[in-house]
Each structure stands twice: as C-alpha cells, then as structure tokens.
C-alpha cells in the first residue's frame, strides 16, 4: 500500500489517498511535518477509513497555505498545502502592509515579518470564524446541532419530538405562530403544521329550555353561566384521532387560545354504529339481533 496524495478539506481535516484499501487505521501511524515557517505543528487525533481514502482529524488548525508533509508508517509520504478558509475577494486585512514603511525597511533580519506572520494567522482564523456566523443563523445551512438551540432561543413552547427537517420548518414559522396566538386562524395553522389535520373552532351552542316540555338529560342539557359560555369554544376535527394526536391537538389549542377563553371539548367524528345482522337459525330477536 502506497500513499499517493493528500489534501486539506478543512482547518482540522486532511484526506489521504492510497493506491489500495485496507491500510493504516491508527492515528499514531501518521506524522505531520511543516515545511515552511512560521507554521503550527499538528498531530492526528482521529482517523476514518473510507475505501482507498483516509480522513484525519487534527488536534488544532493548520497554518493556511503552508506546506505540510504527511508520512504514513510503511506507506510513504505526501505534501499538501494548509487549508485556507474562503474569504471575500475584496477583503484586504494584511498586517504587514499596515505597518509604517520605515519599520518594514528596518527589518533587515526578517524577524519582524515572521512575527507579524504569526499574528496574521491568528487574525485570519478569527475572521474565518466571523465569516461562519451567518451559517449559524441560516435555517437551511445551520448544522443540525444548532437547530435545537435556535428553537430554544425563540422560546419554543411545543414539547413535540421533531426530526431535523421538522425543527428547521418550525423555526421558520414559530415567530408567525406567536403573532397569530389568540386567534382561531393561529390554532388552525398550528394543528395543520404539526399534524396535517384541519380543525374547526366552534362557539358553544346551548340548548333551549322549554318550560313544561324539556327534560333534563333528554332534550336539554344544563349549561354553564352566561359569562363562561360567552368565551367557551370547542375544536372539531374531521377524522378520528389517535391518543397521541389527541394530546397534541389539546396541547396546541390550550397554548394558542386567548387567555380569557375556555376550551371545552375536542369533537371527533363518531364511528358508525355496529348492527347485528341476522344469522338464519342462530339469531334471536331482542337478544342477539335487532329489527332494523
């Protein structure tokens, strides 16, 4: 097995290519030597083999554009340039050119230039980190580990288990959900977002009592006070819900409803009544079957 090439993929990631698979699998088998100065010495801390390629994670960021030689035990060596993060084309942040001209002219030994080069590397790494900030706020590009933090920063009130794509979608609409809080439209949109269901918000309709005719529990129900009924409502869905869906709908409605209102009931379609059909020679009217 021979090492045929190396390339820096990230400030702390190097990929090596071999002529055949099944090579070195220990991090200590690789040695990195800087060929230019100034340069930061690096060491391998973790490796990942993928067929004929091996990805090596370093202990610290390599110096950009500096040549490094990587040696693999018993497999030869390869030279690669240190990774330089992308930067705006118009950026000019060169510390050496910012120094007064007489200081640069007096640097006959080159010590000042080498010292400034060390500072320049730190500045470049800092600017690269600043350039990455927009990626942490872009919901499409942010790493999966930061999506939950964005939701926490937005005060996500919904304790639902979502995959990464669902979390990204929720982070994109959560502020709009806050704006619609306290409205029927907000409840409908939230239920549609989480469960894909349509829900209808209904005001409580009380039955009319007719003196001398209505019977309690038959055609008339004793309702609440007028003040309670004025702000009471029910939510009706068009399909039967599972216990988990039922809990989610109730949690959404309870959070998004106006504070002074009362969520009375979640209405679901009732299943059709089961009818005991006749079985000749077996069914008995009034016992195992009914006339219908």
TrEMBL record:
InterPro entries: Unchr_phage_tail-like. It comes from the Bacteria. This is Phage tail protein. The lineage of its organism: Bacteria, Pseudomonadati, Myxococcota, Polyangia, Haliangiales.
